[in-house]
Amino acid sequence: MQNHLSPAFSANGWRHLSNGRLQHISGIEFEKNFNEPVHCVKESLPVFFQNLKQEGVDVVMAEKLFFKLSQQAQEHFIGLH
Prior knowledge:
Structural class: alpha+beta
Shape: globular
Number of strands: 4
Low-confidence stretches: none
Mean pLDDT: 90
């Protein structure tokens, strides 16, 4: 039986998935396709919100975290990380 382990998260909380997506430890994923802008993977949002809810994060902080992670993902995909 072959073991399909996901790559470990780096110290900054991100990991690269084999499908080219960038995933944060919070559960949110981002991807970039060719000339399109970086975007959040819609299917990852329920996981992200559930994880934040379990941690007691309020709506304002969740929005701030979403924007911060979006910016970090954008910087990663354009090569600033």
